[in-house]
Amino acid sequence: MSPKLYVIRGPDGKPEAIHQRIEQRDGKTFVWWSRGPDGQPTDSLEGRRVESLPLFGSQHVAKWDTSRPVFIVEGEKATMALAAAGYRALGTLGSSITPSDASLAVLIGFDVALWTDADPPGHRHMLNIASAIQAAVRSLRWVEWPDAPLGSDAADYLAAGLKVEDLTLGPVPQREPALVIPIESPRRVQRRRDRSASPIERFNHAVPVSEVLRRDYRLEARPGRALRCPFHDDRHPSLSLLRDDRRAFCHVANCWANNNGRGRDAWDLAHGATGEVAK
């Protein structure tokens, strides 16, 4: 299947980035493109944070009045499906990213309906957005689709031939109360961890994943930037490092570095380089 390119434009219509979605038999990968200092396309955001990018579809807001609600969905595909069906929709750029206040400012004064993907990350994502915009929008509702299949979204709903008018727009659900944990001093926590940690845990605490990838795989890796995965025939960058540099994750589902969605730590990668691959 050919890659799909989504142009992320600001409220003024000017392009600010391109999001490339690559569908493969074993999963999907995403690549960000932007214009580099020399004016040429580059496969990164050149240090820009994803949360600072506009919501997908922001260029249309200037033409809208406040007579109809705006649906907020996760991703470009769901946004385009709703727009094609005649609804006003804006898309976020992934469940792990909460857009900045500047990106969400286009929603000021509108009636907003949050349509979450049917999975826990999508649910948390929309709750984060609700917290960010509730004081700025005219009203805030939550799309209720009780029998939604796990992982489905607005595009799946429309593809099933269902009508948006049949959905209930209810109140935003309450967050589950946070677990209260007694506070310990950082030094005391570290001493306790050192006493109880296994050798593998101590290794992972001391050695960043990026160091193993540079030393054993000759890959220049850093958190927040995708690179080609060394564990399968990777034509498009699909390996990402978590922000804390303690785990690498391949977005291809059947790759060893995906590990059923858990990724791999420094210990795993170090042994993978010697052929002692953990199962």
Overall structural class, as computed from helix and strand content, comes to alpha/beta
Number of domains: 2
Number of helices: 8
CATH topology of the largest domain: Dna Topoisomerase Vi A Subunit, Chain: A, domain 2
Second-tier CATH architecture of the largest domain = 3-Layer(aba) Sandwich
CATH C-level name of the largest domain: Alpha Beta
Q: Which H/E pattern describes the elements? A: EEEEEHEHEHEHEHHHEEH
- Quick one: biggest sheet? 5 strands, mixed
- Overall strand count: 11
* Overall average pLDDT: 86
Radius of gyration: 21 Å
Helix content: 10-25%
How far is the first residue's CA from the last residue's CA? 30 Å
Stretches with pLDDT under 50, minimum 5 residues = none
As laid out across the biggest beta sheet, the strand order is 6-5-7-8-9
Approximately what portion of the residues adopt beta-strand conformation? 15-25%
Shape label:
globular
Supply the key terms.
four-stranded antiparallel β-sheet; 8 helices; alpha/beta; five-stranded mixed β-sheet; 11 strands; DNA Primase, Chain A; Dna Topoisomerase Vi A Subunit, Chain: A, domain 2; 279 residues
Describe this structure in words.
- By secondary structure, the protein is an alpha/beta fold.
- It contains 8 helices and 11 strands.
- A 5-stranded mixed sheet has the order 6-5-7-8-9, with helices on both faces. It has a 4-stranded antiparallel sheet with strand order 1-2-3-4, with no helix packed on it.
- The protein starts with a strand and ends in a 6-residue tail after the last helix.
- The model has no long low-confidence stretch (mean pLDDT 86).
